[in-house]
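User: Predict the complex with calcium ion.
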Amino acid sequence: MNRSIALLLLASVITPAIFAQEVYHGTAQIAYLKVRNSDGTYTTIRDVGTIPIKITPIDATVGTDTLDIHNLPSTLGLTKGGGGGFLGVSGYQTVYQNDTGSYFVAIDGASCLDDTVHTAAGNGKAWSIVKFGVHISDDRRTGKFLLRWRGYATYTGQLGPGVSAFSNEFFDSGFYVERNQFPATPPGQSTFLVEGDISQYPVFIVPNQTCYMASQFRTPHPLGPQFEDGEGPFTLDWNVFANNGPQIGTSQDMFWYDVPADGVYDETEVDMFDPEDGGVGAGNFAFKAQVNSGPTNVVNPFSFNWFRGTHMSGNVGSLWFDDGNYNVGRSGATPIVTEAPAQIVVESFSPTNFPTALRIDAQAKVNTVNLGMRVELWNFTTSQWVQVASGSVGTSDTTLIGFASNPGQCVQAGTSTIRAKVSFYRIGATPVFVWLASVDRIVWTITSP
Ligand SMILES: [Ca+2]
Ligand SMILES: [Ca+2]
Ligand SMILES: [Ca+2]
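Assistant: Here is the predicted structure with calcium ion placed in the model:
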């Protein structure tokens, strides 16, 4: 639907009714996480887990607008909002908040992008609790939508129509949300705030305050979650804006209204909702991001040991960076025939004894086909290895990423030791009988409370 058609719908703008502030609990499945590696390449991981969510019905004005902003300056400044972060009652620090109690839904707004500037307190820290809005436009309570978030660091003006004005992407991830978790509401009033706890998955990290954030509602991949790439057709679930501008962080009273939706936000799509459209300063997503007050640190290994197989070359420093400097092991004999013939165990120290999130990235390649790679974390409470990622490993660098479901148990009390293992094993016939595993990087990403 184009904007001139959408404008006709203004005649049917719905008068909000008052709901009790009921809260419904549910879950969202992480569809995929696309993580940027230090060399600028991306790793996509799927089937990661679920997060708890809370759903609150809200009143909102549903409408559209005239195109208000025709030319955007080549650089963007700050006009709206303010304030530093604060420590909430939960112990989380809010680094961006635009949740004013007065909401506006963009008709056909399945794909929008907002300029958000978080407080400096959020720099380099992973989001723990996020809050956003969704409007389910035709009152369905069946099936699921994919909520996709993409974060960009850079706006570039004067690139013209059809060309993305946003670049330097630092996250791209999606969640499956089942519609039957949303309570029934009167026709046309299916607007909700959703709060999700992503504290175990430190991937949404804004490096330096500015986050041009795209929010998209899409159809899940038709072939199944193992193929999810976030590129399905847009749905009839729409973005929700909050009036009057943010309380924490800043955003200009503008956003990018991707109509017709193609996932490309060009400079001519910049827009805002005027009072005459039913919006008041409504150029800003209803959105809130909270971080743990502690830092999110990348932790390098201090020691390594080829527990199975033989160390051939490289040192502990070879494991620190994604730089093509490898720590190489050769497959060897094992006491049990089913055991992986090459296993490297690494240790380091956690900056905290009480991590709220613990992620491990392992990148390696091998010199033959038909090998698999498994990543495990040592649980000091149960004295067991816990597998957090596995997959095939190629003859060029392959990255696996895993997350601890009990981060605190992966740190040894007293010593703060952390321990991980990466194993290589046959998943088919290998043309090379004695093969090499070249490990480029094994690092933890640990969030402190
Ligand atoms: Ca577009
Ligand atoms: Ca804005
Ligand atoms: Ca390396």
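Residues 3-292 form one domain.
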